[in-house]
Amino acid sequence: MGAGPLRTALLYLVTLAVTVAVLLPLSAVLPGFALADIPSAAAGVALIGVLNALVRPLIVRLTLLLDLLTFGVPGLMLNGLLVLLAAAVVPGFEVDDLPSALVLSVVLAICTASATAIVLHGPSREAHQYAAIRRFARRQPHRTHPEPPGLILIEIDGLAEPVLRRAIAAGYLPTLRRWVESGSHRLVAWETSLPAQTSAMQAGILHGRHFAIPGFRFYDKARRRLLVSNRLGDAALILAPNLNGQVLLCQQGFSLNNWAHGDAEQVVLNFTTVGDKRRGVIPQAENLYGYFAQANAFQLAVLGMLVEIGVELWEGWRQRLRNVQPRVSRGFPYPLVRAATTVLLPRLSQHLLVQKMFEGVSICYTTLLSYDEVAHRAGIERPDSLRILRQIDRQLRLIADAAAVTERRYEIIVLSDHGQSQGATFHQPYGQRLEELVATLVATPARPPVCSISRTWGAFRSRDRMRFPSSNMSRRMT
Known about the structure:
11 strands
């Protein structure tokens, strides 16, 4: 599987030509970088390519844990160091310091991506991408009998069924629309129980129940402290009462970018297994090897994150300018969180999921966080959020296309854990925060029960409307 030998050779030549054409004028303006002539530029670029292909994977194997703990910083530094190494070997290709080398490595990544876009289109580009992923997938033993189909479950966090239907009809999700119209999938609404939020719903989906999870954050009377679902130290404690060892992912399963783990044998980016010796940080780092071993994957993700931060700043300013209501704050650090959940995590999750499909994983559950993150701040059906649904649709298409070329057949289910509704915060209609109201009521002497209950019930009713049906879409791939 791949783009074909002739097209691959053409890709290398075009990449070399594009990169040399960019580096020549860059050497005149970038301090610490100089080129003697075109042959020197070509030799330097070629050697960097060889080092990335042969040396980088060996070094990344040694720095995997640091890559996970520092969000890829060693990988970025390695790119610059390999440029310095090439400069030390090739006469006329001069790089004086690490900052200049890092800038050059970013330029090389952009040139490679541009050349790929020029030479490869549609299926050829996907085949090239799949071949790069398959290179680092673990080799599976030869099987004489065909395996039963595997199962891929992809959760779109926070996407309600009515919103999904309208988005499909409006053309934001062409892949899902094609699946539904072809009859390979059907769209089914389901009603969540309370509390309708990720930690409780994922516990229910992956472990069969969500006992003792009354909310995203709640006061634990036994421990006499507040437990919060997105705190690493609290997540495992919250999930613990629901563990029984006989659940969704216990048979050769893989849990990717989830809150709950479903007793999967392998997990990556999981809140509830950070302190688990068998499935903790070190085993998770091993699964990230294929992603960080690629020369340009993380660099392009970082560039994409910078672009997304700019997009968020623009969209937030546009909402304020137009006085869109209701509206919540979109200030820092939210742009950084959005960049991570809409660029880095989707790319990483897509890579790891496809890699596991090539390895023949039996069942995998992964969460796409991007829509939920943006919808909470921008609004559930505003242009900012609908743009993210287009991105998710492209991810689903690439995953489904990969399933068509893996040795094992896969069935794909797309689902949501809960929905959302558009509305004001408690503070906006009532002029005070909920915790301020509670503090006032606690400090105030007791009033007649009817008045107190009536006012408090009315306040809580405005927040009680957050429960909406979610979406569930299944597919059988043959």
